[in-house]
Structures are given as structure tokens and as C-alpha cells.
Amino acid sequence: MKIKILYEDLNILAIDKPSGILVHPDQRSKEKTVLDLFLKKYTKVEIIHRLDKETSGVMLLAKNKKAYEFLKKQFSAPALGLKTKRGLVDGQYRINKVYVAIVNGWVKNDRGIINKPIGRSPKDFRRHLAGRGARGEMREAITEYKVLKRFTSPRPSPYKGEGAKFTYLEVKPKTGRTHQIRVHMKYLNHPIVCDSLYNPDVPCPKGISRLALHAKSIEFKNLKGKAVKVESSVPKEFAKILT
After folding, report:
1. What mean pLDDT do residues 51-67 have?
2. How far apart are the first and last CA of the chain?
3. Is the pLDDT of residue 47 over 60?
4. Choosing from 26, 52, 195, 201, which is the catalytic residue?
5. For 120, what's the count of Cα atoms within 13 Å in the CB-facing half-sphere?
6. Residue 117 near residue 141, CB atoms below 8 Å
7. Maximum C-alpha span of the chain
């Protein structure tokens, strides 16, 4: 598999991760990962952050330890006290990530902030949970969203009747918890389309067979102090269902 490079300098790579590939090795799987593919050329490359296997879009890699530590500080900058101008958080530059997602149902409010800690599901070790019933350490999680479009789509066979309702969202996670966007959308009762873990009983709309979550852009500061914004095109299957 060939993965497109969206940005590269002496220290940092930004790639366009396809849906369906793991970021790093999993003890339960022997399939090739993003890390495996880039270690062939960049022998010191390190994973700074991750995208879920079925999530596509922009992802950063560090080509050396110095870049890894430099970017890690930007990812770990505090989420509260956020100053939106140029990504500054209490004087520290913070990574700014923007996703797009298609969720079930029509989201009522045009904009919103989900400020709900995330813990573990008591029923499934693979899942996380926001709100009532969550177990273990509850970690702060903040997600902003904006409605881009509300639409209907024909129900897949054998379902009949009027078209099913969906909402196309722009989503900005202000913290970086595992499955954060997926968990918060589930908490709103608008789970992401084709999410086999958090939305397993709802059929996918016609034309989409993968998790409808895409990392559209990321802004960071490189080691020369320059602010860089990298963008990934919206997947074709998203664009098709939205037209």
C-alpha cells in the first residue's frame, strides 16, 4: 500500500492515512501498519498521535526524537483556558485538529460543545463511555461541533419507507481521548455512520461501507517556529452521499 505524503520537512511528515489500516502494530493482528510502511524509508520515525483503523485523513509522524518531543508538547497543551488566536493555550502552542463526520439523525443545534468526561464501558473492554455507567478513571474530554448539512438518504435494502436522516458535521476535539469523537457522538444519541463498535445495529446508508469519520486538517508549529496547516480532501464516498 502506498500512502500519500501531504507535507514533509527535515523533521516532520504529514500523511493522508487511508481507512482500514492500523497506525501501529496490534498484538491481535499481523497486518501491515502505517509505522511498518514508513520505517522502511525513515528508520527513526515515531508515531506522535493515532487515528483509529477505520478513520482516514491527516496524521503527523516525527522523523526523529527531537521532532517527536517537540510535537508531543503541542498535543499535550492544556485544553482549558483556550485562546483561539493562532492556537495559543496559556502561552503554549496547541495542535488544532478538524474532522468531518456523518452521523445518524438530524442534530438539533447548529453548534455545540460536548464537555463530558470519558471512562471505560463496563460491558465491553474495547469501548469507552461518556456519562452514566462509565467505569474506571474519568478523563476530561471536550469536543466542539458545527452542523454543515442535514440530509436524507434512501434506506438500504431490505428497509423501506422514507429516507433515513443524517447530519454532516465539522468536529474539533479539544482533548485527545481514545475514540473521543465516536464516544461523544454516541453520547448525543447521534452515533457516527457505519461505526461497528458504537453503532453496530444501524445499517450503513447506501454508498458508505466504512466509518464515516475523516481527519480533514491539522495545524501545528514546525521546528523552525512556522505555523503549518495541512489538509486532506474529503473522501469520495462522503462527497457522493452529500450531493
Report:
1. 97
2. 29
3. yes
4. 52
5. 8
6. yes
7. 57
Helices (H), ranges, 13-64: 34-39
pLDDT band, residue 79 (cuts 50/70/90) = low
How big is the CA angle at 152 (ends 146 and 156), to the nearest 5 degrees?
Answer: 125
Nearest one of 90, 136, 101, 96 to 117, comparing CA atoms: 136
Cα separation, 193 vs 207, whole angstroms: 11
Domains identified in the chain and CATH numbers: 4-242 (3.30.2350.10)
- Find out whether 232 and 215 touch, Cβ atoms under 8 Å: yes
Q: Which three cell numbers stand for residue 12?
A: 516532520
Work out the average pLDDT over 6-14: 98
Tell me what pLDDT residue 25 has.
80
The number of beta carbons lying within 10 Å of the beta carbon of residue 85 is 6
> Can you count the helices (H) and strands (E) in the chain?
4, 15
Residue type at position 53: K
**Full DSSP string of 200-239:** TTSPPPTT--S--EEEEEEEEE-TTS-EEEEE-PPPHHHH
Mean pLDDT score of the chain: 89
Name 125's Cβ contacts closer than 8 Å, sequence gap at least 6: none
Show Cβ contacts of residue 188 under 8 Å, excluding neighbours closer than 6 positions: 107, 114
Residues forming beta bridges with residue 135, ordered by sequence position: 120
Residue 52 known to be catalytic: yes
